[in-house]
Automatic annotation (TrEMBL):
It catalyses: a 2-methoxy-6-(all-trans-polyprenyl)benzene-1,4-diol + S-adenosyl-L-methionine = a 5-methoxy-2-methyl-3-(all-trans-polyprenyl)benzene-1,4-diol + S-adenosyl-L-homocysteine + H(+); a 2-demethylmenaquinol + S-adenosyl-L-methionine = a menaquinol + S-adenosyl-L-homocysteine + H(+). It comes from Wenzhouxiangella sediminis. This is Ubiquinone/menaquinone biosynthesis C-methyltransferase UbiE. It comes from the Bacteria. Gene3D superfamilies: Vaccinia Virus protein VP39 (3.40.50.150). InterPro entries: SAM-dependent_MTases_sf, UbiE/COQ5_MeTrFase, UbiE/COQ5_MeTrFase_CS. Pathway: Cofactor biosynthesis; ubiquinone biosynthesis; Quinol/quinone metabolism; menaquinone biosynthesis; menaquinol from 1,4-dihydroxy-2-naphthoate: step 2/2. Keywords: Menaquinone biosynthesis, Methyltransferase, S-adenosyl-L-methionine, Transferase, Ubiquinone biosynthesis.
Amino acid sequence: MTDFGYREVSPDEKTQLVGRVFSSVARRYDLMNDLMSLGIHRLWKRHFVATCGIRPGQQLLDLAGGTGDIARLARERGADVIVADINREMLATGRSRMDAIGLVQGLEWLQVNAEALPFAANHFDHLTIAFGLRNVTWRDKALAEMHRVLKPGGRVHILEFSKVGLPALAKVYDTWSFQVLPRLGGRIAGDADSYQYLAESIRRFPDQPSLAEQMREAGFERVSWSNLSGGICAIHRGAKV
């Protein structure tokens, strides 16, 4: 059994349920991100990509990247990007957004499962995943696959919600997550249940040291993390040596 928010479900059921969540929210995903984070997610993502060390001409795989936000920022730095997501609706939404602003060159869009990546070993210079790792059914398999497809010297960069360190902030954050977000989801996206799940999935995700240890178990070295906004989210990085 595995977790789907606060529920215990079979692995196959979790994969199906997560798929339904993101199919449901795809069209309103970016608007809801703006409302949920008061727009701060855009600053988090820009800082995340700016500190990845991306150089022109490098190959980058962006997992769970359907909306295209990370890909757009990586293209600004000259990387060639494969945007990979398990959800067809999210990919379609992201590709439509990038096409609308004329961002076509240097981008490829693929529907893939992070637990079984269809790429050769030692292929990518960088791998990013932003706010997607907590939705993977088998995190250990996904991390092992990330390690496999990176070149020696390549780096993984994970942006994910994490453990808030300040008690006063944690209390406000809990109120916002469980009282406000589902109501926003119901009113704006017509789906309160999906946003209830998303809030629960954040609380079930490993804290900063635990995720770092899981990365080391997958083979990554020089693992580090840095908190953003008091630990509401964190950036984890590791290298394939």
